[in-house]
Amino acid sequence: MPKPKIDSKKCTKCGTCIDVCPMNVFEKKGDKIIVANPDECIGCRACEVQCPSEAIKIED
Ligand code: SF4
Ligand code: SF4
Fold this sequence. Notes:
two-stranded antiparallel sheet; globular; binds iron/sulfur cluster; 2 helices; alpha+beta; 60 residues; Alpha-Beta Plaits; two-stranded antiparallel ribbon
């Protein structure tokens, strides 16, 4: 099962991952971006590739 992880120290809260994830895995919560629905991840890596801060890693 692919598991998305956000490095909160690198994340600039740009929202790109929310926009590109086809499975709505990410959500904004307060002033943070969180992995709200990790079990929905299909491992497409769109978020990992498009995050401008390289803050997302998909762990297999
Ligand atoms: S795309 Fe990267 S920097 Fe932007 S909100 Fe998502 S994890 Fe944070
Ligand atoms: S790998 Fe794809 S499905 Fe999984 S969180 Fe990233 S964009 Fe969403």
